[in-house]
Design brief:
The protein has 315 residues and is α/β, with parallel strands linked by helices. Strand 1, helix 1 and strand 2 form a beta-alpha-beta unit. The structure holds NADP nicotinamide-adenine-dinucleotide phosphate.
């Protein structure tokens, strides 16, 4: 027989683990499905300097590990599994996971958003060693250095502008000659004396794999075919994020880019009407702030709502 849990949490990043701490402390015995990227985006970053309470900063993986221990201390359990499909039409909800079927009275979706990467091996090898997808997290480490940002949308412009606070020069690399960023953001980037825009350019290789730190990028001009090396100390990806919510399509409302729509902060909807017992928190429903602390905050809200739902629908 399938076990029915009071609360199942999808995702083990900052939002999911905060939801786990709160629901565990409320004796809901939550089960956390750790997902494809256990620990979420924080587990891929280095020093986190803006999470309140850590005046000297804390390593992202350590912060996540602490949250996990904190949740476990109150009785949260963890499973290295991910969701294949879900049926929200019946209550308790039926979850088909890589570890079998699970039944849940409340579901907290904290499956996050995954940064898009170029996918080339040298880039993957240097994540956390000069390659980053988060300017707010890692920009500080590049004070006085020359760096590059990839992308042609608003995220790339925003990252490039933000990074001029630290870097001595930011080269913005985009694969086409047309930028899709909004006019105002593009104009700001063009006008900035420390930003150089380079269109029609793709990255063939990130240099520095053997040294374990970014030394430069080998570039190719897609029009002329010529290659050159740009010496840089950091490479920031600004090519967008993909919310991990496709498995909910048709069962809860997603926006045009696939983020979960929420009302009342963390309530999910279907055709605009609240889906009782299903809550979403963190980056899977937040395209705007995407910070560890905001994810944690919404994880807390989702947990409190789940608790309230269970109280009102005593089983
Ligand atoms: P986006 O608009 O989808 O832009 C992604 C950019 O990355 C595009 O220029 C795309 O190139 C490029 N790209 C994608 N995959 C690539 C790859 N494999 N290799 C090289 N380049 C690649 O994403 P976004 O910039 O994150 O913006 C998402 C949404 O959030 C937008 O609606 C945006 O307006 C909004 N946003 C707003 C602000 C703001 O107003 N302050 C800030 C951030 C984001 P192509 O152009 O060639 O496709």
């Amino acid at each position: 027989m399938t076990e029915t849990r009071d609360t199942v949490i999808l995702g083990s990043g900052c939002a999911g683990l905060t939801a786990a701490i709160y629901t565990a402390r409320a004796s809901l015995n939550p089960l956390v499905l750790e997902g494809h990227e256990p620990g979420g985006q924080l587990s891929m970053t280095t020093l986190v300097e803006n999470f309140p309470g850590w005046p000297e900063g804390i390593q992202g993986p350590e912060l996540i590990d602490n949250m996990k221990k904190q949740a476990a201390r109150f009785g949260a359990t963890f499973q290295l599994a991910h969701l294949h499909s879900v049926d929200l039409n019946i209550h308790p909800f039926k979850l088909h996971t890589s570890a079998g079927e699970i039944s849940a009275r409340t579901l907290i979706v904290a499956s996050g958003a995954s940064a898009r990467w170029l996918g080339i091996p040298s880039e993957q090898a240097l994540i956390g060693h000069g390659v980053s997808s988060c300017a707010t997290c890692d920009g500080f480490f590049f004070r006085g250095k020359e760096i590059a940002v990839v992308g042609g949308g608003d995220s790339a412009m925003e990252e490039a502008l933000f990074l001029t606070r630290f870097a001595s020069k930011v080269t913005l690399l985009h694969r086409r000659s047309q930028f899709r960023a909004s006019k105002i953001m593009l104009e700001r980037a063009i006008a900035h004396p420390n930003i150089e825009l380079r269109g029609n350019t793709i990255i063939e290789e990130v240099l520095g794999v053997d040294e374990k730190e970014v030394k430069g990028v080998r570039l190719r001009d897609v029009v002329t075919g010529t290659e050159d090396v740009l010496p840089i100390s950091g490479l920031f990806l600004g090519i967008g994020h993909e919310p991990n919510a496709t498995m909910f399509k048709g069962q809860i409302d997603l926006d045009n880019d696939g983020y979960i729509r929420t009302t009342g902060n963390v309530m999910t909807t279907l055709d605009g009407k609240i889906v009782p017992g299903v809550f979403a928190c963190g980056d899977v429903q937040d395209r705007r702030y995407r910070q560890a602390i905001t994810a944690a905050g919404s994880g807390c809200m989702a947990a409190l709502e789940a608790e309230k739902f269970l109280e009102e629908h005593a089983h």
